[in-house]
Amino acid sequence: MSIPHSQVPLLDWTLADSDKPAFIAQLRGILINGGFLYLQNTPVPPALIDQMVDATAKFFALPAEAKDAADMNDTAHFNGYLRRGPVENPTREQFNYGDDHADAAEGAPVYHNIHGRTPWPDDALFPGCRAIMGEYYKHLKALSIKFTCFVAEALGLAADAFEPLFESDVARRQLRCKLLRYPACAPSTTGFVAHTDSNFLTYLLQASDEPGLEMQNASGEWSAAPTIRGTFIILVGRVLEKITHRLVKAPMHRVVSPTKGTRYSVGYFQGVAMDTRVAEASAKYKYPQEVLDMQRAREEREGDNTEFRLVESDNLPAGEAVLNFKLKAHPLVAYKFYPALFPKFYPDGLPAKYASMVH
Ligand SMILES: O=C(O)CCC(=O)C(=O)O
Ligand SMILES: [Fe+2]
């Protein structure tokens, strides 16, 4: 079942200019009661969104060798291309990119290696690809910085209340774009398993009309989240859930592969500073009673009496938690670039199916 159009949580960015209190009140209700929304009429130019949609399909249409030349498994930084194949990614292709960074300094914590350069396919094969994707990234960065202020205000805090969570140098922030291509699978299969996002906030562009994304509601029911051209779907991530002591909840979502046609999406993932410890940061935030009352009302309505709890990894610097998560997801990168950590995650060595991929 699809979310009925009248029930799609749609928020108009321009309302922030014309009637800020109404905008903040709507955002507050949506965040506390749902944890995801469609944001429309943002400052991201519609022509740029169209270019990004085209560029995403065109990127994946490049010859396999060109994409493989930008293999994520050949770098330590988790950016680059992951082919679709029986070993790693049976239902989708993926390309991650972000700001380019110099390699981590000598003696820096190992998790600083999540920063690095993105490998790209030869630009001559798709002139303009990097320029369009770079421009998109720049606009999403500006959007995410502004939207984070709105989220803080919606939760009854000062607009800059979340600023200390992020690197003060905007160029060093934990931001990543992820392009995904889900080819048709018949019979229908899971394209992306049910999960909550682990970061702070996600800004998702559904870059095709093929259905596939599904959101789970409080009763456990799944509904298709339709593509609405020109909007971004904003998803609360687990870090924001923890920083707000579950005043907002990270929504469970999944992707069902299309049975015909191809589905494309572009996620923009906003994470907190590498050195931020979520447990410690979370303790510093206090929310006003009127928003806490809305949380109580939601919990009563949903019959949710689970107590808010942090986990062991919330005591780690966020970059270390991210690295651990990524090393579990990418055994080849762990094997090739993190030999000191590899045995901790793979005590029995590289899983057999990956052996043929070592070159
Ligand atoms: O492809 C999509 O629309 C969703 C992808 C997603 O949930 C993710 O990358 O975390
Ligand atoms: Fe997700």
From TrEMBL:
Family: Belongs to the iron/ascorbate-dependent oxidoreductase family.
PANTHER family in the cross-refs: 2-OXOGLUTARATE (2OG) AND FE(II)-DEPENDENT OXYGENASE SUPERFAMILY PROTEIN-RELATED (PTHR47990)
Keyword annotations of the record: Dioxygenase, Iron, Metal-binding, Oxidoreductase
Protein name, entry field: Fe2OG dioxygenase domain-containing protein
Protein source organism: Mycena sanguinolenta
Coiled coil: none
InterPro entries recorded: DIOX_N, IPNS-like_FE2OG_OXY, IPNS-like_sf, Iron_ascorbate_oxido_reductase, Oxoglu/Fe-dep_dioxygenase_dom
Gene Ontology MF terms: dioxygenase activity; metal ion binding
Record Pfam families: 2OG-FeII_Oxy, DIOX_N
Domain Fe2OG dioxygenase span(s) in chain numbering: 173-272
